[in-house]
Design a protein that fits this description.
With 82 residues, the chain is mainly α. The chain has helices at 5-17, 21-32, 43-81. 5% of the residues are buried.
């Protein structure tokens, strides 16, 4: 059975929460291959997909910031050890 865009986006959200970034990238590639013209999506479904996408972007940005802060803290700790 073919997965809907919403299903793929929800899987992306789960992968992001679980920090499975390689699988997330693969899932995003699958989304990229979708022919949106052939998707028979209602306006409500499209709006819901956009809300999920916005949530994914916000979550990914928070995750990226946390990772960057971790790297900065590690580098500070290394400099204290010298």
């Amino acid at each position: 059975m073919k997965k809907t865009l919403k299903d793929l986006l929800l899987e992306c959200e789960l992968l992001l929460k679980e920090r499975k970034f390689d699988e997330l990238i693969n899932k995003c590639q699958a989304i990229k291959e979708i022919d949106f013209k052939s998707e028979n999506m209602s306006v409500e479904e499209a709006k819901e997909c956009l809300r999920i996408i916005n949530h994914l972007i916000e979550t990914a940005e928070k995750e990226r910031t946390e990772m960057a802060n971790t790297v900065v803290n590690i580098n500070r700790f290394k400099s204290y050890l010298k």
